[in-house]
Amino acid sequence: MSDSDDYTNLDHVEMSVRELLTEMKDSSEVIVDLAYASLMYNSEDMAEKVHDLEEEMNNLKFAIRFKVLMSSRTKEDAKQLSGLLQVASAADRISDAAADIVDLLDVPLEKRPYLSDMLHESDEKIRATKISPKSEMVGYTLDQLAVEACTGCKIIAIKNRQGWTYDPEDKTKIRAGDDIIVRGTEDGYSRLVDFANGKMPWEFPEPDDEPEELSDEAINFEDEEEEDE
Amino acid sequence: MKALEVMLLELKDTSEFMVDLAYSSLLYNNMEIAEEVIFLSGTMEDLSSKIQDATVDLGKSNPEEVAKVVVITKLQTSIMYIAEAAKSIADVVLRGLGEHPVIAMSIKESETTISVAKVAQNSIMKGRTFGDIRLSTISGMFVIAIKRDRTYIFGPGRGTQIEEGDVLIAKGPEEGVGYFKDLADGTETEF
């Protein structure tokens, strides 16, 4: 970074407002899952990742404020951008709450057994399973497998020989012996376990042959709205 | 689970549901969904007071449970903070400040996207319950609300039956969206 720019102390200013907001929304969701998972598995590592994400969220928040203020030219801009900043601020506050949740790890484990019992009963549960060498998932990336689309379970952490990876990237490869922590429904989890232990062959998602269809949907929904008025 | 834990769990699940609904209201700039978030925040306040009373009672009758009192109160505070954040997102919609196209685009492109589909007359979902079709297990798409005629069903359960003309609002991975829409419009004829 050069010293000549007046905003060199701001990270992420190279990102667009849309990219920043997408990143903030994604983080606000994954950070809450990780926070509860850290309580369930009593994991300091996971709590540390939550604090890193929270820190990162602060950087994103300042970057988005900077970009938005720079781009506002008219009253109408200012009005709509104020809404956008409110959303960014809400995502940031969610990450603050997640960071507070992981601070409960400071309470000795034997003093909070009811917490993991309670979290196990959630609508969408967080659970762990192991990848067997017999599993057809072995050798493929998360992107190729589209695990969530095939099982309804979202992988929030993977442990391989290198250690834990939280909120793994699409290019992360599943290997035999990996431990995974997922969030999903009971039914989706049992399906995933069958895939993970090799009981069931993996069903690769069919490629979507109508990609443009996706962009139309908001319009369909709004048409519905208009009919109602 | 004891009554206190059951209430706290409901508080947690509702806070997450509020966040999902809040982002949906923003994506579709939809007042009804935004209002449901505000309504839920009212029920959260009530539930939160009940939890507080029960926690105080626990501390009074079992002084050795003081650590639990502290933990539950802290967790409750964080959960309410998340609910407040969801409410402030819904507030953007209600004030008419959610129309900037970048907002909708950023939600569309996030890891967990939100999508709508209308159930066609020849859809195999028609007449079945969510428990029957296991939609989230086979597609990753989790239906958070249904628009049926002029009313909304928020947080449908396993027993909720899907009818022709229902507009399903679901959250899930981008890869699940195509299949979800195909199931609804009748293109996909088997599960």
What does this protein look like?
The complex is a heterodimer of chains A (about 230) and B (about 190). With about 230 residues, chain A is an alpha+beta fold. Chain A is built from eight helices and four strands. In chain A, helix 1 (about 15-40) packs antiparallel against helix 2, helix 1 runs parallel beside helix 3 (about 75-100) and helix 2 runs antiparallel to helix 3. By secondary structure, chain B is α+β, with helices and mostly antiparallel strands. Helix content of chain B is about 60%, strand content about 15%. Chain B contains seven helices and four strands, in the order H-H-H-H-E-H-H-E-E-E-H. The relative contact order of chain B is 0.15. The mean pLDDT of chain B is about 95. The chains are: A alpha+beta (about 230), B alpha+beta (about 190). At the A-B interface, helix 1, helix 3, helix 4, helix 6 and helix 7 of A face helix 1, helix 3, helix 4, strand 1 and helix 6 of B.
